[in-house]
Amino acid sequence: MALDFVQWFIIAILLITPILYELSNTFKYLAKFALFYSIVMVSAFIIIFPALLRPKDVNNYKYTAWVVNNLMSIFGIKREVRNREYLESDKPFIVVCNHQSSLDVIGMFDIWPDRCTVLVKRELMYAGPFGLASWLCGTVYIDRFDPEKSKNTMTKTAQHIKENNLKLYVYPEGTRNHEGALLPFKKGAFHLAVQAQVPLIPVVFSSYSDFYSKKDKRFGTGKFIVTVLPPVSTEGLASEHVTELTERIRKQMLEVFNETSLEMTQSKYANGLK
After folding, report:
1. Has residue 265 got a pLDDT over 80?
2. What ranges make up the beta strands (E) of 152-213?
3. How far apart are CA 274 and CA 270, in angstroms?
4. H helix runs in the chain, sequence order
């Protein structure tokens, strides 16, 4: 009797799930994000084994980029990358990119430079297989709640990227922004670039509104534009120049964000009329 109930329960779930998926945007949104995070964890688990052969080596991120680029393709999110050549330098630099969602990893690993690592919040170190994989890839962790530790991390990182000819990927907004536009930038990445005397390369992802909205619980297929802007030199700059540098780059990125987001909206509208 119990077995019959279990069997009927499984059958009911299998029948109801595709119906809910098609009829409910909220269910589709939650189901796709459950799949997304499952892929993230599976990817991390896969990466752990080859990364164990050379722990804390940023070159392990090549495995991550390959796995993510292949597995994430199932979501049908396309990218148009502009000016990728700016990221092909063999010298150290710091990438600053706007941060809209966890989905940013799709675009991030599409443009991932050689010998690059990423700056993330320290809490992610303890996120199961993801935390272990990121540690093995030489990720830089920062304690957002301890300014003194954060400052020390930045000082060591400046020296590290300079001495080892590394690139660093940073989200200067400090948190995900689901509402469009750009949040005010934190100055850490810019202090770091000035301290290390390495260029900053701004990267702008256009709005995801074509296919994603946390507020409306919408997660579909679509496209966004990735614009890589020319390197901004920090040579000769000092700490007193950081505020102006931060605001100048944010203004430039915001202009590109608005332009490319409008371009995507107009393109979608034009295609809809065909």
Report:
1. yes
2. 167-170, 200-205, 212-213
3. 7
4. 2-23, 25-51, 61-71, 104-110, 128-136, 147-163, 188-196, 242-273
CA-CA distance, 245 to 191, in Å (whole number)? 10
- Smallest Cα–Cα separation from 164: which of 125, 198, 124? 198
Pairing relationship of beta strands 167-170 and 212-213 according to DSSP bridges: unpaired
Residue 60 CB neighbour total at 10 angstroms: 23
What is the Cα 78 distance to its own chain's centre? 15
| Amino acid type, 111 | I
Phi and psi, residue 165, nearest 5°? 55, 55
Query: Residue 270's pLDDT band (boundaries 50, 70, 90)?
Result: low
What dihedral do alpha carbons 148, 153, 158, 162 form, nearest 10°?
160
Assess contact for 232 and 200: CB atoms under 8 A.
yes
Q: Give which of 129, 158, 165 is closest to 142, Cα–Cα.
A: 158
154 pLDDT above the threshold of 90:
no
Residues counted in the chain: 274
Residue 167 three-state SS: strand
Strand, coil or helix: 64 = helix
Q: Is 133 left (phi over 0), alpha (psi -120 to 50) or beta?
A: alpha
Tell me how far apart the alpha carbons of residues 149 and 8 are, in angstroms, rounded to a whole number. Answer: 56
